[in-house]
Design a protein that fits this description.
This protein is an alpha/beta fold. Helix content is about 30%, strand content about 10%.
Length: about 400
């Protein structure tokens, strides 16, 4: 088994934030700018809000073929495509999108926004606030419902009155569920992957530990670090948060099979060296600090902790009963962060969901991202019964 490579020595210190900033290459991004301030659930008002998004395919004249794909915590709008200027990584679900694939762009108009509060082009802590400087620590707290309201504005701007399918996993699944409960007439089909009806105490605890790791970094400076020089951002705290999170994203069985008790090549843990699993976590942390923003991580983690689809709706059962979409709920059999019992609750409460589909994977929570053939089958199942869009539509490629 090969060891995990270290970051190149010539890479130099990372910038204070890995966020996309004004002046960076736009890549495939487009932007929806909201004309009116967004009133947030907590009472604050967010002026000048915008969402970055990407699309594939073409919207049919009857607007019946739009699919909304919602990303997880450290994802973004770059659902498909190669890495390149403006996009530090390749598409995170590339295998699902394109001609002949489950999200067939010869038939479907696929939309992937960067979540409100994110750091890859949407309004968030790293973007300019009312005074022109980054919002930083003054960025208001968000909830999943705030984020869905922002996405509903994007749908309106695109002319999409009803999504043929809304799909999301993990944090994206929370928002997909909020779409189906809060806007039931706008969702024809729904795919929920590895997500809960409400954040559990265990999930909140893991997230809070990550948030505290970031805020304990001396370079956090109350969240106002975005104009600091390279190497002067809260990289240590964000790296610790990523290590904690990644442990929960993978299964104990996979980590044991891949790394066991072995030392990293050329190192001796008894004398201060690292284990292979430790090197692996270091590698994951080093990658994230170059493409993500610590304050966005805090904002999104805290928003995930607010997730409770039954809040103000008479409880979970009453809220789930509002879903009108054809629904498939799926979980990963080795997921220790969002265990199958949570998906069973969703399937039991959503009319017509007909039980939980099991994604078989050794990879834990990340299985919903990695087991693309199994996910593709679920997507095809939901879209297979959808009426064909207007045949005069032609794909853009």
């Amino acid at each position: 088994m090969s060891s995990v490579p270290a970051a190149p020595a010539t890479a130099g210190p990372p910038p204070a934030t890995g966020a996309w900033r004004e002046g960076d290459p736009p890549g495939r991004r487009r932007w929806h700018r909201r004309s009116a301030p967004l009133e947030l659930e907590g009472g604050a008002v967010l002026p000048g809000m915008r969402l970055a998004f990407e699309t594939w395919g073409r919207l049919a004249p009857d607007r019946s073929n739009a699919v909304l794909v919602l990303h997880a915590l450290t994802g973004d709008s770059h659902l498909a495509g190669t890495a390149g200027p403006g996009h530090p990584t390749a598409g995170w679900w590339d295998a699902l999108v394109g001609p002949g694939r489950a999200l067939d762009t010869d038939r479907w108009f696929v939309v992937a926004p960067n979540v409100l509060g994110g750091c890859q082009g949407s309004t968030g802590p790293a973007s300019a606030g009312p005074g022109g400087r980054p919002w930083g620590g003054s960025f208001p707290r968000l909830t999943q419902r705030d984020q869905v309201r922002a996405e509903a504005g994007l749908a309106d701007a695109l002319g999409v009155g009803r999504w043929a399918l809304v799909v999301g996993g993990s944090m994206g699944g929370m928002r997909a569920l909020e779409w189906a409960v809060g806007e039931p007439r706008r969702v024809a089909a729904l795919l929920l992957l590895a997500c809960p009806a409400a954040a559990s105490a265990d999930q909140i605890a893991w997230a809070i530990a990550q948030v505290h790791a970031i805020r304990a970094d001396p370079h956090w400076r109350g969240g106002d670090y975005h104009d600091a020089g390279p190497g002067r951002g809260p990289h240590t705290g964000l790296g610790v948060a990523r290590r904690i999170a990644h442990i929960t994203y993978r299964s104990a069985q996979e980590l044991e099979a891949r790394f066991g008790h072995l030392a990293q090549d050329g190192e001796q843990p008894r004398f201060g060296g690292r284990y292979r699993v430790e090197s692996y976590l270091d590698h994951q942390a080093a990658k994230l600090v170059r493409r993500f923003d610590a304050a966005s991580y805090v904002t999104l983690a805290e928003a995930m902790n607010t997730h409770d689809v039954g809040r103000g709706r008479g409880g979970t059962r009453a809220a789930l009963g509002r879903v009108r979409a054809r629904t498939v709920v799926a979980g990963v059999d080795s997921d220790r962060l969002y265990p199958l019992a949570q998906q069973e609750e969703l399937a039991a409460g959503i009319p017509g969901a007909n039980g939980v589909r099991i994604i078989r994977s050794p990879y834990g929570h990340d299985g919903f991202l990695l087991e693309t053939e199994q996910v593709a089958a679920l997507v095809r199942e939901l879209l297979g019964g959808a009426p064909d869009p207007d045949p005069t539509a032609r794909p853009t490629g």
